[in-house]
Amino acid sequence: MRRQIVLSIIVRFLIYFTHWMILAYLPVLLKTSGFTDIEIGLAISLYSLSSMVLMLPLGAFSDFFSPKRTILGGALLFGMSFLALMFFTSFWPIMGAITLSGLGVATLIVVSESLYLKLFGNEERGARIGLYQLSTYLGFGLGPLTGGFLLTNSTTALFSAALGACLLIFLVALGLKDCQPIHFSFRQYGADLKQPKVLLLTACVFMLGTHFGVEQTSFSLLLKEDLNASPQAIGLIFCFIGLWMAFMVPFVGRLHDRHKSLFLFLIIGLGISGIFQLLTAFVTTLPWLLTVRLLHTMGDTFALLELSVLVSILFPAARLGGSAGFMYAVRTTATFLAALLAGVLNRYWGYGFSFLSNGLLVVIFAIAALLFILLSKNRKKSVGW
User: Fold this and answer.
1) b or e along 54-93 (b: 16 or more beta carbons within 10 Å of the residue's beta carbon)?
2) Which partner for 320 in 114, 201, 311, 372 could form a disulfide, CB atoms 3.0-4.6 Å apart?
């Protein structure tokens, strides 16, 4: 079991390392190539859209086919997209490569997590999921840091490194344990998704996804255009944030195992995240921005850990692929819509306005969700408050 946990953590780290090594600089690369803010918003939203289209079917497909083989196929798609980006220079071919990248990363993110939850999500959920997410946050932090240094050499070096990382994902995934396939049933998946708690979780996931769309479109550009940050400085900011989240998540996981109330961590995390998302609009220096974003991601850490725990609790283990895929599809739909809207807002009102408007929306939602549970004795009892 320990060997399988280690292999799963390595695969997860490499997925997010590669994903964020490219995504952190993609808006900057497109801006340098002469793309407008609206085109950049379209590119990032297309990345999310291509992920969204296949997250649910790929998750369900991994339930009745083979999670391990699905991960291997995703690694090949992911690698092919970076090979294409090394050579394409015009708008539509780049859009095609970004779409392929979205398909690859959708496969890897959804199926790797559902396989881990199937194998190891039944006991000590908070601690085990916290350990798993630690690898995610290390990838989120170290990927952009590495990308910043590679980008000082050339974009070819950046995409070559991403291609090599995809090869590593493929090789390490060969050692993963597979799960037995199940008989596919639309009715069973539908029944799972109609539970009242699942509907509340879906709303929370959608709101969480909106702030990712704003960040993916606007954060690097806010750093570069408004705060004059270099690629290395952008990489360091991402690194500090990722290491901070990696440091926090094991403690949050252990705390969660001692506190049995459902949705509490998720809603409080959304509230904290939203407050510091809107405060990002007012930063004027890099140290100030880093402080605000560290506090923002403290909320993200609580919310994301609770999200994975709730998925493992509310859905049957055999159908976790499709269920996790549905939640990722909801989140990515929100990311797509928010990224597209952020591109428009950035053009007319500046990068800070995207953070201000989104943060205010998330805070209002968190307050409404909190009141929705607190104002009903039955709902409070149902979630253990």
Assistant:
1) bbbebbbbbbbbbbbebbbbbbebbbbbbbbbbeeeeeee
2) 114
In the chain, domain spans: 2-177+187-383
302 vs 126: CA distance, rounded Å: 11
Among 370, 325, 373, 335, smallest CA distance to 196 is for: 373
Locate tokens 């490569």: which residue?
97
- Name the nearest CA neighbour of 211 among 130, 299, 120, 124: 299
The answer to whether 274 and 242 are in contact (CB under 8 A) is: no
Q: Which amino acid is at 201?
A: L
Q: Decide: helix, strand or coil at residue 385.
A: coil
How does pLDDT run across 124-172, given as a tens digit for each residue?
666 778 888 889 889 988 998 898 889 887 788 899 999 999 999 999 9
Picking from 19, 47, 147, the residue whose alpha carbon sits closest to that of residue 39 is: 47
**Long-range pairs for 3-6: beta carbons < 8 A, 24 or more residues apart:** 3/175, 4/119, 4/120, 4/176, 4/177, 5/120, 5/128, 5/131
- Separation of alpha carbons 148 and 230, rounded Å: 9
Annotate 145-156 with DSSP letters as a single string. Answer: HHHHHHHTT-HH
The pTM of this model reads: 0.78
When mean pLDDT is compared over 24-28, 41-45, 243-247, the highest value belongs to 243-247
Whole-angstrom distance, CA of residue 136 vs CA of residue 116: 13
Q: Are 162 and 20 in contact (CB under 8 A)?
A: no
Cβ-contact 40, 342 below 8 angstroms: no
The counts of H helices and E strands in the chain are 15, 0
Who's near 368: CB < 8 A, 6+ residues apart?
none
What are the φ and ψ backbone dihedral angles of 333, each rounded to 5 degrees?
-60, -45
Domain range 2-177+187-383, its CATH number among 1.10.287.3610, 1.20.1250.20, 2.60.40.10, 3.40.50.1820: 1.20.1250.20
DSSP secondary structure string, 167-204? HHHHHHHTTSPP-------HHHHHHHHTSHHHHHHHHH
Q: How far apart are CA 97 and CA 86, in angstroms?
A: 10
